[in-house]
Amino acid sequence: QVQLVESGGGVVQAGGSLRLSCVSSGRAFSSSAIGWFRQAPGKEREFVAAINWVETTYYADSVKGRFTISRHNDKNTAYLQMNNLKPEDTAVYYCAAGAVTTKSTDYDYWGQGTRVTVSS
User: Fold this and answer.
1) Contact predicate 97/83, CB 8 Å
2) Strand (E) or helix (H) holding 117
3) Cα(24)–Cα(110) distance, integer angstroms
4) How far apart are CA 80 and CA 61, in angstroms?
């Protein structure tokens, strides 16, 4: 069983930055792909970024150039650095462990989410 715990969300003004963390416990973190997804009110959950076990990264077009996903295997932690935040980035952000894809259904384990609010 894998448990994931996100942190780092909050309220920030447009143009600001936040760094989200996702700490994993359970099976080998270093062999898992980690994905970040987000869900805004009234919208479906959408892919944000993913990183595989050899640290190849993938991004949604909407965040490319602004967000950076990374991982620190020794700390069983993945990060999502978010810069130049926009009001449309407001959502609950979830990390997930599983296959490295853009589809939420391909991920087996999910955290509880951390809320990000970007004010204009």
Assistant:
1) no
2) strand 114-119
3) 10
4) 15
